[in-house]
Amino acid sequence: MASTLDELSASHDVWTACVVSDAWRSDSRELELGPEAIVLNVYVEPAWRRRGVADALMRAVLDGLAGRGIRRIVLHASDDGRRLYERLGFMPTNEMRLGRG
């Protein structure tokens, strides 16, 4: 997979960003202090899909977060990405949003 990422980055701009906050809710619904990362907008160009790019990117992100001691990682999976995230250990949740204005 590293060669796929190397090949992709040689011909495209590849970048990542990490957002970390200081608190999260645990599964028991109690507030737990500590870092939380939010993964936003993972996208692979159609020509590069089904070649392990998203898997390699996400594993690199997860390894980097683990190295920083970040235990909780949140993302919103598309239908296409859900299988990948479940393979990586993410658990589906039910989240609600309120949009105003």
Please name the defining characteristics of this protein.
101 residues, alpha+beta, Aminopeptidase, 3-stranded mixed beta sheet, 3 helices, 31% helix, globular
**Oligomer kind:** single chain
The low-pLDDT segments are 16-21, 23-28
CATH class: Alpha Beta
Q: Would you list the SSEs in sequence order as H and E?
A: HEEHEH
- CATH architecture group name: 3-Layer(aba) Sandwich
- What's the main sheet like? 3 strands, mixed
Number of strands: 3
General shape: globular
- Could you give the distance between the termini? 44 Å
Alpha-beta classification: alpha+beta
Number of helices: 3
**What fold name stands as the CATH topology?**
Aminopeptidase
- Side by side, the strands of the main sheet go 1-2-3
What is the residue-averaged pLDDT? 77
Cα Rg:
15 Å
Q: CATH-wise, what's the superfamily?
A: Gcn5-related N-acetyltransferase (GNAT)
Helix content: 25-40%
Number of domains: 1
Strand percentage, roughly?
15-25%
Brief synopsis:
This protein is of the alpha+beta class and 101 residues long. It has helices spanning 2-11, 53-67, 82-87; strands at 19-25, 31-39, 72-75. It contains 3 helices and 3 strands.
